[in-house]
Amino acid sequence: xxxxxxxxxxxxxxxxxxxxxxxxxxxxxxxxxxxxxxxxxxxxxxxxxxxxxxxxxxxxxxxxxxxxxxxxxxxxx
Length: 77
What we know:
Blueprint: H1 16-24, H2 63-72
């Protein structure tokens, strides 16, 4: 299972205080090591095909038709 955070793509801008503190900190070089993999793929499937959207009208005149379709076809209301 893969997960991600909602703010994953929000940029983080450094502050001047953080930049100055980072200059004083020594860098450590650590070798990269690969451990044993623990990923097991059970199945890969394409998502179900979605129905094409449609335009039911424009402006306030489309609201009654949209509500009717949501009740009768999509059954979400």
